[in-house]
Write a structure and sequence with these properties.
CATH class of the largest domain in chain A: Alpha Beta
Strand order of the largest sheet of chain A: 8-10-7-11-9-12-13
Shape of chain A: globular
Largest interface: A-B, 59 and 58 residues
CATH superfamily of the largest domain in chain A: PurM-like C-terminal domain
Structural class of chain A: alpha+beta
Helix content of chain A: 25-40%
Order of helices and strands of chain A: HEEEHEHHEEEHHHEHEHEEEE
Oligomer: homodimer
CATH architecture of the largest domain in chain A: Alpha-Beta Complex
Largest sheet of chain A: 7 strands, mixed
Chain lengths: 299, 299
């Protein structure tokens, strides 16, 4: 199939997600055109997924597409921003292209994730080479109101937006494959259908700092405390676990894309798991943990 | 080297190009934050370069980086927009990473292209896998003033912004390698250091349609006429050639990233090469040419 037939497949799969509302011009020109909201800043991030690192090569294409879009959008959620649009660069082998059905499924998964998050996929690029999916994700936040990693202060309470460890447990228990799009267990859903937590945008507005958990609680808390110039004390019993996940899954292997944030304010809808503190480092029930030593925790 | 040491190399190479002016927050958080200009729309595009398709794997990393940024920005120039920022996703093999010196050169080339075009590289992503460079390029244009491919009308004069065929001639004459960053001939410069034509932004404001030439004059003129619902008549003698390039290089192999546009207005600084016409198709000195048959022209 030639490039233009493949692009037609993608654009058809995008359906209502290619253009509309703030996207004035979608795919088909040199660039897309998006109208920003007056008084808001643009928030931009890019993520790449490659097979057998970020997803099993044999996974259903629909789930690969869904996950690719959501993990990229999660960075936008972590800034406290509203998602607006994504542009996607696909590098595909001849085998990936085939008769176009794999690509249609991949695009369908992306379109579903765009629908679930209220965003558009308004442009992209396709080239031949080893499979590589790059998603550039874009959102908006009221000027000056983005939540950075660096704003945390000792005494702020630490929260997570939901249970952790599901994606890690799925991996550890070798449940990534086989998987069926319409019959996933909870751990498979945690891995393949993470939800960028845009529903927390309002809640984040009083946060002092935030990050999304893509590399396990300890490592991402390490990024947050380093940027904020402080340490953190966690209470093991308070860390919420996905059913079937272990504490080690949550601490080390979690890429559930929950939000991790700190705040002076109470957040009754979130899980309070500890406090930021003056002393550098991370403590779990009073014991120091090396965030780079998280591999010791592998179950 | 670990990921964080590599990111430090990139950010250091970016220097003043990582943050400033409209980029309120550069690399190091979940996403970058950019302040748009009031009354302007955002223009967004993404391009991917893979080795031995878009550049020789053995080319100097500085030139690979320079070219990668400029070809992506060229799509922004083709909309009549001002460049604002890029975000870059690098997928690198262990060999590419090495001691970090290749990456420093690559980043240095990107930073130079950002400097030459007045833009910032305010974020990115790095992962391991077969070499792949994705650049998401972003600009701004006064609301409703973007120049699309679709606005051309029969009778509009067709222009190009500069001589064509240099990059194609470099390829045809097997001059891509060896190449030295500081001692390139004109054809090598055309290939490795294309210039996104932001200097034409003012001139484009009276254009009816525009595209950048990345696949040869005929193919890109085909995109322009198809979108505009018309045909085109070219005058062979008027097509400007880079010294050392043949007509075939210009028609078929050109990826010099000059702008191709049409206008009712005179553009004395551009090269007038023909007219849009009612009959579909492309004519060269009155003879019909199949834009998909451009390979017949290979020298």
């Amino acid at each position: 199939m030639d490039e233009f037939a493949l692009i037609d497949i993608i654009v058809e799969a995008m359906g209502d997600r290619a253009q509309g509302e703030w996207v004035r011009l979608g795919p088909g020109d040199d660039a897309a055109v998006i109208t920003p909201t007056s008084g808001f800043d643009q928030v931009a991030s890019i993520d790449v997924l490659v097979p057998n690192v970020h997803f099993p090569a044999q996974a259903p294409a629909f789930l690969i597409g869904y996950r690719a879009l959501m993990v990229s959008l999660s960075d936008i959620a972590a800034m406290g921003a509203t998602p607006r649009y994504c542009i996607v660069a696909l590098t595909l082998t001849e085998a990936d292209v085939g008769d176009g059905s794999w690509l249609a499924q991949l695009s369908g998964g992306m379109a579903q994730a765009a629908r679930d998050s209220g965003t558009y996929i308004c442009g992209g690029n396709m080239t031949r080479g080893p499979l590589n999916i790059a998603v550039s994700a874009h959102g908006e936040v009221a000027r000056g109101c983005e939540i950075r990693r660096s704003g945390g202060r000792p005494g702020d309470k630490i929260y997570v937006s939901g249970p952790l460890g599901g994606a890690g447990a799925c991996l550890r228990q070798d449940m990534l494959l086989p998987v069926k799009v319409d019959a996933m267990n909870e751990l498979q859903k945690a891995y393949y259908k993470p939800q960028a937590r845009f529903d927390w945008q309002q809640g984040l507005s009083s946060a002092s700092c935030a990050i999304d958990i893509s590399d396990g609680l300890l490592q991402d808390l390490g990024h947050l405390t380093k940027a904020s110039g402080c340490g953190a004390r966690l209470i093991e019993e308070k860390i919420p676990l996905t059913t079937g996940a272990s504490l080690a899954d949550a601490l080390n292997a979690s890429d559930d894309y929950q939000l991790l944030f700190a705040s002076e304010q109470p957040h009754p809808d979130a899980f309070h798991i500890g406090e930021l503190c003056t002393e550098k480092g991370i403590w779990l029930n009073g014991n120091s943990i090396d965030t780079k030593g998280y591999k010791h925790f592998n179950a």
